[in-house]
Amino acid sequence: MKSIQIEKRAQSEVVTTTLLILIGLTATVILSYFVINMINDKLTDKTCFDYLDQIKISPAATYFNVSSKILYFSIERESKEFELTGLRLNYGNDLSRASVVIKEAEKFDWLEYYNKSSSWENTKTGYGVRLPKQGESVTFRLNSSKVPDSNVIQINILEITPIINGQQCSKKMDSLTVRQIN
Questions:
Q1: pLDDT tens across 4-49, in order?
Q2: Integer CA distances (angstroms), 33 to 21, 25, 38, 41, 43, in order
Q3: Neighbour count for residue 17 (Cβ, 10 Å)
Q4: pTM here?
Q5: Following CA atoms 112, 114, 119, 125 in sequence, which dihedral angle do they give, to the nearest 10 degrees?
Q6: Are residues 132 and 63 in contact, defined by beta-carbon separation less than 8 angstroms?
Q7: β-strand partners of 137
């Protein structure tokens, strides 16, 4: 009778050990899933970090016309190769701000760019938005009175955050105090 009890106890220890191993493996798989996703998110920011000095607002070509409510700004892109798929523009003043995202080939009735034929091209007609390519700059004019859901009257701050390979960077790339003209 005693040998039967010893065998049952030995079997229960084997089952307990097997269950503990399975629980440990399951916990490891679940934890590694979350850690891998967290690392992938950080790598996206690393990509943006690699291009920090590659996109800038040109101070000489950036100003706000107070009477027409039009913001003129020029985005300069340096020579490093990467896929710029869009820009987030944050603009406004100390009291109110607005934010818009512009992507290659999108069409807006409130945004124009200066084309290679030396004329303003409305992004609503034709190709749409043209972002600067490697080593060039593009000048835009944004009619702040036509931007939907924008209550910004005065613009004296402009910030840009790039969208690289379809991923918006978590930090702004450049910011500028905007000159005012009448």
A1: 555 666 678 888 889 999 999 999 999 988 888 776 665 555 567 7
A2: 19, 12, 9, 13, 16
A3: 10
A4: 0.71
A5: -40
A6: no
A7: 76
